[in-house]
């Protein structure tokens, strides 16, 4: 019956879609990017996320990785430690890149695979570095 009403009035919106639809924020896009290894080139475990939090003086409860990272970004903003958090993430990405290079050195035939992951991780690092530059420029405004 509902589909029939939609056919009668093509301008009627699907209410189920609207209920599930949430506008994605820039923070959500960054979190999604950082927590999907195929896009960022790195995997951040829950334990590593807790270490990132402790680096800025926060203790985060264990839950979904994206939610944990979101909490850390929110706490960092509230405590004026956003730049410190971004620096910590950059250091973490550098650490992951060094792990890939170590694998490459020890197993030269893996270079075909690790090169791709290193490129993705370097792209992620560049994105986070740009975020840090923006945060440094805007720190006095916000």
Radius of gyration: 20 Å
Taken from the alpha-carbon principal axes, the silhouette is globular
Largest sheet: none
Helix proportion of residues, in percent? over 70%
The unreliable regions are none
Distance between the termini: 51 Å
Counting DSSP E segments of at least 2 residues, the number of strands comes to 0
Blueprint of the fold:
Elements: H1 2-8, H2 15-20, H3 26-35, H4 37-40, H5 46-55, H6 65-78, H7 82-106, H8 111-138
Helix pairs in contact: 3-6, 5-6, 6-7, 7-8
Please explain how this structure is put together.
With 142 residues, this protein is an all-alpha fold. It has one domain. The chain has 8 helices and no strands. α5 runs parallel beside α6. It is globular, with a radius of gyration of 20 Å. It starts with a helix and ends with a helix. 20% of the residues are buried. The model has no long low-confidence stretch (mean pLDDT 86).
TL;DR?
The chain is mainly α and 142 residues long.
List keywords for this structure.
142 residues, mainly alpha, 8 helices, 73% helix
């Amino acid at each position: 019956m509902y589909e029939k009403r939609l056919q009668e009035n093509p301008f009627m919106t699907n209410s189920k879609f609207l209920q599930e639809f949430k506008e994605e924020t820039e923070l959500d896009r960054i979190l999604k990017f950082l927590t999907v290894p195929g896009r960022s080139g790195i995997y951040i475990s829950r334990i590593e996320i807790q270490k990132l939090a402790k680096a800025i003086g926060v203790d985060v409860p264990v839950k979904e990785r994206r939610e944990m990272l979101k909490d850390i970004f929110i706490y960092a903003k509230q405590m004026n430690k956003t730049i410190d958090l971004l620096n910590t993430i950059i250091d973490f990405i550098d650490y992951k890149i060094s792990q890939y290079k170590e694998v490459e050195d020890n197993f030269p035939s893996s270079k075909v695979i690790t090169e791709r992951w290193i490129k993705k991780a370097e792209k992620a690092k560049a994105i986070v570095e740009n975020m840090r530059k923006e945060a440094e420029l805007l720190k006095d405004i916000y």
